[in-house]
Fold this sequence. Notes:
Number of strands of chain A: 0
Strand content of chain A: under 5%
Radius of gyration of chain B: 27 Å
Strand content of chain B: over 45%
Keywords (chain A): Membrane, Transmembrane, Transmembrane helix
Number of domains of chain B: 2
Largest interface: A-B, 53 and 44 residues
Oligomer: heterodimer
Organism (chain A): Paenibacillus sabuli
Number of domains of chain A: 2
Shape of chain B: globular
Number of helices of chain B: 5
Helix content of chain A: over 70%
Radius of gyration of chain A: 24 Å
Shape of chain A: globular
Structural class of chain A: mainly alpha
Distance between the termini of chain B: 65 Å
Largest sheet of chain A: none
Number of helices of chain A: 10
Protein name (chain A): ABC-2 family transporter
Amino acid sequence: MMHYLKLVRMEVHRFRYVLAGLAGLTLVLQLLAVWLTTNQRLSELRESNFVDSGAQFSHSKLSFTFILYNTQFMYALPILLSILVLVLYVPGIWYRDWLGRSSFIYRLLALPMRRATLYWSKLTALLLFVFALLGLQAASLPLQWWIFRAMVPQAWQAPSYLSDIIGQNKVLQVLLPANPLDFALYYALGVLGVLVVFTAIIIERSYRGWGVLYAILYVLACTLLVVVPLPLLGTNHNAMGLYPIEVVTIALTAALLVLASAIWLGLRLLRRSISV
Amino acid sequence: MRRFWLTIVLLVVALGGIGGYYGARAAEELPPFRLVTLEGDAELAEPIALNLVYGSRAESEFLRIDEAGSHYSTNQSVFDDLFRYNYRYPEVEALVEAHRGFMRGKLIGDYYTDEEWVLHAVIDYERVAKEQLDAYFELNWLKVDTGKSAGGRYRIEAMQGLRGYANVIGLQRRDQELHVLVQYSGSNASDEQHLGVLDYVVSTEDGGLLRTVPVYEATGMNANSSISAVGDNQVSHPDDYALLNVRIREEEPESPSVTVSGNRIAVEAAPTASQYYSYRYETGELVPITIEPDELVRSEAERTWQGLYYRDGVLTRLEQADGRIVLHRYDVTGQTEHSRTELQAEQFGDSMFYSPGLDGDRLYAVVSGDPYRSADGSFDREGIYVIVVDSTSGELLYKGEVQYDGPAEEAAGHLAGLYSFNLYVRP
């Protein structure tokens, strides 16, 4: 257990500056987007000689929801950049050990512990990066809201609701879905993707030259297995005579099989095919 | 432990941020509503649900209100869509629940059910040449007590040489004979339009086609002409008659006149003759029904609706214009209007009817006020009521009201945000 925790800590430590950069960029750019948009709308309101009609929702009032709707690109940019960096770091977390100075991976593999620990620690670290950035995004919303309230006079403020706020930005809608069950589904699929890529990397490292081809074929096969059942069998037509619940069960079973096989194959190759 | 501080911080940010977000969303409840019985038999409200929109926020929310409370669509999971059968009609879903094996692969088509049998029919096409499709109907039947099922595929000969389509518009059982009413429409090689209805009679004994009864046939009309069945529900029940509405549209004029009035352009349309017929399965008799012209003045009404309903030998025409509903009932065997009922929304507490509909002898409707918002975003109305009325006598059987299920001082504000009523009655 201690080896596992130490390895996780090591991965966090190695990625700390990139993570801090992404977190900082997200905070600063989003706050700037809210500040700039609010300022702009306030100027427009002042120019149009604001009159309080007394209505709860009025074109002459500002809501945080409305502000967020008007910040689309600048608000989503740091999120998309973070996603890109993290996606690139999925292979990066392995290859930096192999391709770095003096092949650090061989020292890691030679440690007196099960090699699976290395595998799980890398997965844990990646998930920690993803969820920490996501948690930061969720936690920064109240801060942005507070800044909006501080900038806009009370009489000019229209109420906002969290569900409406999230609904204003497509990226936020996907990253923080309304239903916790959807959250679990989306991120479980993400974990599945990460594990398939992990296994593909280990295949490539195990067989080198031909390994590239094997890895590509492996990723293609997994993608087909997970993606194809739903459109092929369909949940809203009866071409195969299956009920929708049966189609969904087949798709979920395929995903679980891919998950289990990715873990099994990845760990087996890491243990047996990679020699120090 | 100190060496792990960054890892711990990340863990806390992740759990705190995401947990806090879902906690805040759960706490931020949308206002709860409930359908509360004011008068009459509360059991009649059991199959009723009112679909509407709550618009007192920046984003409008769709919700359903029934006796149990309100259910917002915002928080639905993708699983709700994935696991729900994509059946358009609850009656089909009930058939799947009762006859899972027989219904496999039959989620599309037309159905008939009685105490002993379940029938399913669907149109199928087969390409025989580059521009030639052969049309068939597939008929399957299940004898409920034995659990035995059988079926067959039958060619629709009338579609031979036609480019067009066919529909099943009626499905019935008379003892050991199964009747499939097929409507076809299409044009032949010389572009002449054909339209007709055939009654295919199939034996349950061996699946053989016993006879084909030509019910209606016309040629040379506009391609937009059509025949439909009144009360054409996805699931049919035992009935002696089928009610057909034949709409023959004349050929479009070669130079249609165009009138321009402001921003509106009106193109003269070819006249359409609409005629109703009752078709008796047992005798193959087709009898025209004379229906009185509309009596409500629609041009001055904000909201109008007209619907035709057929059940057990009675054809009912429902006309609504704002706060007035008139029900004309025709006896299809005698081909006469045998009763007329008129209702005013004021009788039930407000000025307008919304989403009226008939189920047998029961009229379901929402009664509320002005459909348009005033300057402050609210609606001018007394309340939102759901009524069930005996359509033959006009007697009120049930009256319920949508009420806010929270502190009384907040009720007016939340109720003012409800609009766009759509009444749904589970069969």
